[in-house]
Amino acid sequence: KNLTASYASHQSFILTGIPGMPDKNPWMAFSLGFLYTLTLLGNGTILAVVKVDQSLHQPMYYFLSLLALTDVSLSMSTLPSMLSIFWFSVSEIAFDACITQMFFIHGFGVVESGILVSMAFDRFVAIRDPLHYASILTHGVIAKIGIVVLTRAFCVVFPVPFLIKRLPFCHSNVLSHSYCLHQDAMRLACASTRVNSLYGLIVVILTLGLDAVMILFSYVLILKTVLGIASRAERLKTLNTCLSHICAVFLFYVPLIGVTMIHRFGKHLSPVVHMLMANIYLLLPPVLNPIVYSLKTKQIRKRIIQLFWLRKDNA
After folding, report:
1. pLDDT tens readout for residues 199-233
2. Which residues constitute the domain of residue 28?
3. Model pTM greater than 0.85?
4. Window from 59-68, 127-136, 297-306 with minimum mean pLDDT
5. In total, how many domains does the chain have?
6. Tell me, what CATH number does 161's domain have?
7. DSSP string, 149-201
8. Any stretches that span the bilayer, and where are they (predicted)?
């Protein structure tokens, strides 16, 4: 029996819904369905509005479109296993499918972080040199930034599946979450995971850590520029253009830090807390980012209202 279990653990993992409360899974299913629908509607609206409105064909809104696409991609990466557990009560996931999901979740996480840095650079250029803003951030430059962000994410996450695949799994094959993460699968291995841990730490420091420092540095330079503006009203107006981006940064980094802290120091906490934090980290930013940008960005808000009024009048 033990040999069979050992062999099975090589072929598949068991994902966890709500630990200790399987009867709550149907309730979670509708909540998740609602969140995924909101993600697609919100980000889809942002993409449609930017595409349709010529006045929004500016660097800031191109970066916002990239953020919306990344948010949708990140949500779609978790969707198959979430639906499988909460809608169909199927918690088993094939080993290769788990590794593939892991690659996309970590990859799009790094992409999102890179886009947030690009958006900080965009705000810095817009505030520091408004006259040359459009000539500095041309379509070609934005495309190159997008390619660099995608290439970096691919290169740093590419080794992860191979690092996991080389490990023997002879312990329990039950994962802590409703989707596959490198650090979660790694702890089930029955061999040394030092290389995996070290690589994971280096990636986090060189991508997410470095990105956070670069965003902070951008805002130090932005504040320095803003403080040089004589009029108080102008200072506030200029800072107001950064509010949406600041919210997006907090929405991404605060849950990420929370999940990391809980993984490292919260082993004594209830598994439900781990589950909630992990789901908040991946599901909340894609839902809230379009809402924040719609509420805080005048041009987008105005265009969305026009779009709905037009449909109402046509009806």
Report:
1. 988 999 999 999 999 999 999 999 999 988 878 88
2. 2-314
3. yes
4. 297-306
5. 1
6. 1.20.1070.10
7. HHHHHHHHHTHHHHHHHTS---S--B-SSSS--HHHHHTT-SS--HHHHHHHH
8. 27-50, 62-90, 102-121, 141-164, 198-222, 243-266, 272-293
